[in-house]
Amino acid sequence: MKTRLFLTAALALWGLSAQADPAPGDAARGAEVFKAQCAACHLAKATDKSPPIGPQLLGVVGRKAGSWDHFGYTPAMKKAGFTWDPKLLDKYLENPYAVVPGAAMGLLVPSPSHRADVIAYLSTNPDLLRQPERPAP
Fold first, then answer.
1. pLDDT tens, residue by residue, 53-77
2. Is residue 74 exposed (0-12), middle (13-18) or buried (19+ Cβ within 10 Å)?
3. Greater model confidence, 105 or 9
């Protein structure tokens, strides 16, 4: 009986945490996590250079998915139709394919603290680099 009660409580708390906003992260730690895990494919700084493999992420918070010019998004990302916010980025970084089936993201970020830190980093200076968004297809 105690085990059943414990499992029920644990599942209820897990369900609440899965729906809650991501925990606030540390932007300085996020810069380090980004450098270690994301920078091989993405840029998050003002530059005229094209990102190595993935789209530019500076200014991604508040930007429509699949809208960065000069990047060949998958058809699924082009049709996603949402705007990136911290909660959605957290879900995407945890499992991109659950958020956008057909996404081409090659790395999962299973650590909630790493996701929170990277999101804090990507949320700093979001207006520093803005580009006109593509019209919807």
1. 899 898 899 999 999 887 889 999 9
2. middle
3. 105
Give per-residue burial for 8-39: e unless 16+ CB within 10 Å, then b: eeeeeeeeeeeeeebeebebebbbebbeebbb
The tokens of 34 are what?
A: 């980004």
With tokens 């993201």, the residue in question is: 105
User: Is 69 within 8 Å of 130 (Cβ atoms)?
Assistant: no
What CATH number has the domain spanning 23-123? 1.10.760.10
Degrees to nearest 5, angle at CA 128 with 103 and 137 = 40
Quote the CA–CA distance of 3 and 55 in Å, as a whole number.
Answer: 47
What distances in angstroms separate CA 84 from CA 4, 26, 36, 91, 98, one per listed residue?
39, 19, 22, 11, 15
Express each pLDDT in 1-47 by its tens digit: 444 433 333 334 444 344 456 568 999 999 999 999 999 999 888 77
Measured CA angle at 122 (ends 121, 127), to 5 deg: 120
Domain boundaries, the chain: 23-123
